[in-house]
Amino acid sequence: MRLKAAGLDLMPGGGAEVFSPRVRRELCPNKTTGADWLRIVREAHQLRIKTNAVRGGFLENVFMRNVTIGRVAEAVLTIDLLYEEGAKGAFMPTVRNVHLQNVRSSASPRVLFITSFPGATIDNITFRDCTFRGVQKTEVLSGVGTLTFRNVTIEPAQQPKGLNSVPAPAAPCPRGCGRRGDAGRPDHPLGRAEGPGPAHRRGVRGRQGQGPRHLSPRHA
Question: Which of 10, 49, 139, 155 has the fewest CB atoms below 10 angstroms from its CB?
Answer without folding.
Answer: 10
